[in-house]
């Protein structure tokens, strides 16, 4: 929250002072002037002096007594949970300073328990917020004509049945619908429909505003300036790492890398597997016990992108160099080739197939140690490399761990994976 008043705020306030009775202290019209008396405030006061000054209060030097510079309201006996803006407006809602600030700070503080619903809070009062901060319910299939909007009562529970989900409305959801209808004194289904749409539009706005907050607090970038999350992620990566990347302008090199792009490894290493243990059906105690296990790699893209990556100095070089290289080669794999460290000893196979491969790109030479035979080297590229992307990957990984909901969890996963996809674009 910005505790300083802008010059426009002060100008507007001065205009109000001149046009209306303003029974207080003009010398405290600025935030800085109101903050100064708090220098002698007892340190144990359960309120923040910056918040008190921002709400228009000046300290009077007696215990915890404060006075509004605008309306002269005197308050004391502050409790830890008291919200200055709420207390100020509760005791004198007609205060010019409160009225001037109602559009920004007041709404923020008055809805402190619904801080994620700022847009909804601008149109609904506090006691109604629990009804408008959850997904509403509506009899979609019942409303099949304009005449239905003139119905003067909430349709029955059976009218909320959905053929799409093949289910009716839950009891708690129907109770919520009745509470909304009664609380907002809806006279027709049309009024309920308008309210339903208004709530959903405001909630959508709040969802996006919270999404913008997450992006601003994490990357200091506004998501509203981007069409897609991958676009946002690529800019966030460049901004966070500060890494300058060389533009790949050599056409032959570009084609070499484009030709090296291939899909991920997808295969059924063993087409049929059957477990044999006490918990499996048709257990055969005469046979060796066995289990099935599903193996998955977490953060696969993130792990690969945390390795040393090229960023500059791409060129064709001699075979001997202290810098990183990419090889374009022909190769084949010996039929007897197996990997010594296997997840399972029942099926010794690591590659899709062992047919001859031509014109493939290889970066890591560990494959040679495991039976790959290089038959011809077409080209060698060298480049400057470092783990420049690792800290951005780690940032999103940590944010994913701290995610407050499934949306944030999936979002930070995408922010990592999208970097791979963006670098594949021409």
UniProtKB/TrEMBL annotation:
CDD domains: BIR (cd00022). It holds the Pfam family BIR. GO terms for biological process: DNA biosynthetic process. It comes from the Eukaryota. SMART domains: BIR. PROSITE patterns: BIR_REPEAT_2. PANTHER family: PROTEIN CBG23764, RHO TERMINATION FACTOR N-TERMINAL DOMAIN-CONTAINING PROTEIN. This is DNA-directed DNA polymerase. The lineage of its organism: Eukaryota, Metazoa, Ecdysozoa, Arthropoda, Hexapoda.
């Amino acid at each position: 929250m910005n505790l300083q008043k802008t010059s426009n705020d002060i100008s507007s306030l001065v205009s109000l002072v001149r046009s209306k009775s303003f029974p207080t202290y003009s010398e405290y019209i600025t935030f800085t002037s109101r903050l100064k008396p708090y220098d002698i405030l007892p340190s144990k006061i359960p309120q923040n002096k910056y918040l008190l000054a921002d709400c228009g209060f000046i300290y009077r030097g007696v215990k915890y007594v404060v006075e509004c510079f605008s309306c002269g309201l005197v308050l004391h006996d502050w409790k830890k949970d008291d919200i200055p803006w709420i207390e100020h407006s509760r005791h004198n809602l007609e205060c010019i300073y409160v009225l001037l600030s109602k559009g920004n700070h007041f709404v923020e503080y008055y809805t402190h328990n619904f801080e994620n619903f700022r847009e909804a809070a601008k149109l609904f009062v506090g006691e109604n917020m629990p009804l408008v901060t959850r997904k509403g319910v509506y009899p979609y299939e019942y409303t099949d004509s304009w005449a239905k909007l003139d119905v003067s009562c909430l349709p029955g529970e059976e009218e909320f049945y959905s053929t799409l989900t093949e289910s009716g409305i839950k009891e708690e959801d129907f109770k919520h619908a009745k509470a909304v209808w009664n609380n907002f004194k809806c006279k027709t289904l049309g009024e309920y429909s308008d309210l339903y749409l208004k709530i959903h539009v405001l909630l959508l706005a709040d969802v996006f505003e919270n999404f913008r907050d997450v992006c601003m607090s994490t990357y200091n970038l506004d998501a509203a300036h981007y069409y897609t999350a991958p676009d946002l992620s690529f800019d966030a990566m460049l901004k966070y790492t500060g890494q300058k990347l060389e533009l790949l302008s050599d056409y032959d090199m570009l084609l070499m890398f484009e030709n090296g792009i291939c899909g991920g490894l997808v295969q059924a290493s063993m087409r049929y597997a059957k477990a044999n243990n006490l918990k499996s059906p048709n257990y055969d105690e005469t046979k060796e016990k066995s289990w099935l296990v599903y193996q998955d790699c977490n953060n696969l893209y993130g792990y690969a992108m945390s390795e040393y990556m090229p960023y500059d100095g791409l060129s064709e070089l001699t075979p001997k160099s202290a810098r990183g290289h990419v090889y374009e080669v022909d190769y084949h794999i010996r039929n007897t080739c197996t990997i010594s460290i296997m997840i399972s000893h029942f099926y010794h196979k690591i590659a899709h197939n062992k047919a001859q491969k031509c014109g493939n790109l290889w970066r890591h030479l560990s494959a040679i140690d495991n039976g790959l035979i290089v038959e011809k080297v077409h080209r060698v590229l060298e480049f400057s490399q470092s783990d420049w992307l690792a800290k951005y990957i780690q940032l999103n990984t940590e944010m994913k761990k701290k995610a407050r909901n499934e949306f944030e969890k999936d979002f930070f996963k995408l922010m990592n994976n999208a970097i791979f996809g963006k670098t594949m674009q021409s």
